[in-house]
Write a structure and sequence with these properties.
CATH class of the largest domain: Alpha Beta
CATH superfamily of the largest domain: 2,3-Dihydroxybiphenyl 1,2-Dioxygenase, domain 1
Organism: Ohtaekwangia koreensis
CATH topology of the largest domain: 2,3-Dihydroxybiphenyl 1,2-Dioxygenase, domain 1
Distance between the termini: 35 Å
Largest sheet: 10 strands, mixed
Number of domains: 2
Strand content: 35-45%
Protein name: Glyoxalase-like domain-containing protein
Length: 283
């Protein structure tokens, strides 16, 4: 996607219209997460053949190629490899790969991209915008997040693309890690999440942010050190995990029995080490 700057200059979120309550009223939930990889075919083999997800092929466009893992509730993971850095989007993912592979940003589905842009303008927050026949997108600068509104509100992915052998149903949570989690908690609550307070997941102290039914689980690097130690890039900051809701954990155990799963309480964990994230399967 080629983004266009529609606002300039940066100011603190000081105006009354810039309170977090305004943006959260526009947010429907986490829509998808782009994940950049070096070898798209290897990633496809992992997710389709080994982890038993159904994969929807994408296409080459704007300097990238991609594929999707889509869920029944409309959420999805998008796997991307850059092909041509002369395109803006290809260049972005090429630069990201210089640091690591993995999740790059959060895409939040919104009721009205125009309303999001108006609010960001009123708040003097710089952003980029893109429009095409399928969606409108808005990206506030420097926040690892963008908003997306689909033009056809009634469109649904075909069932064949959202039915998985491992019986996955939805992307329930995204995990975020940082040496400075307070900064991201503050930013994300301004950008549409609601802070639900502290909780413990997988024995890890975390802060839980909500966007409707979606969760963003924010963890400090010290709390998540044991998880990071499993990754190819243990210094990962940003997106480092996903919780995927499934119909049956027993099916996951049976189908993925040769995949070095970790059973922890009512969860099954798989480390995608080369991609610097883990997947938590849960009912």
């Amino acid at each position: 996607m080629a983004f266009i700057y529609l606002s300039a200059g940066f100011a603190a979120w000081s105006q009354p219209l810039c309170e977090e309550a305004n943006l959260h009223k526009l947010v429907i939930g986490i829509d998808h997460v782009p994940i950049v990889v070096r070898d798209l075919n290897e990633a496809k083999t992992l997710f389709s053949d080994r982890l038993k997800f159904t994969v929807k092929n994408g296409r080459a466009h704007e300097g990238i190629s991609n594929f999707f893992v889509k869920f029944q509730d409309g959420t999805y993971l998008e796997f991307i490899t850059p092909l041509d850095s002369s395109f803006a989007i290809g260049n972005y993912y090429s630069n990201f790969l210089k640091h690591r592979a993995g999740g790059t940003s959060l895409a939040l589905s919104v009721k009205s991209a125009d309303s999001v842009m108006l609010l960001l303008q009123q708040c003097a927050v710089p952003f980029k915008s893109n429009a095409n026949p399928i969606w409108l997108s808005v990206e506030p600068s420097g926040n690892d997040l963008f908003y997306i509104e689909y033009r056809n509100k009634n469109w649904k992915e075909r069932e064949v693309n959202t039915t998985h052998a491992n019986q996955s149903l939805s992307l329930k949570s995204v995990w975020w890690i940082s040496k400075d989690p307070a900064k991201y908690i503050s930013n994300f609550t301004k950008l549409g999440f609601i802070n639900k307070g502290a909780s413990t997941y997988l024995g890890i102290q975390a802060q839980v942010l909500k966007a409707e039914s979606s969760e963003l689980i924010v963890v400090s690097s010290s709390e998540g050190a044991d998880i990071l130690g499993n990754f190819k890039s243990p210094g990962t900051e940003g997106i480092f995990g996903f919780t995927v809701k499934v119909k049956s954990l027993n099916i996951v155990r049976q189908l993925l029995k040769d995949q070095n799963l970790i059973i922890k309480g009512n969860s099954i964990i798989y480390y995608a080490k080369d991609y610097n994230f883990f997947i938590v399967f849960t009912e």
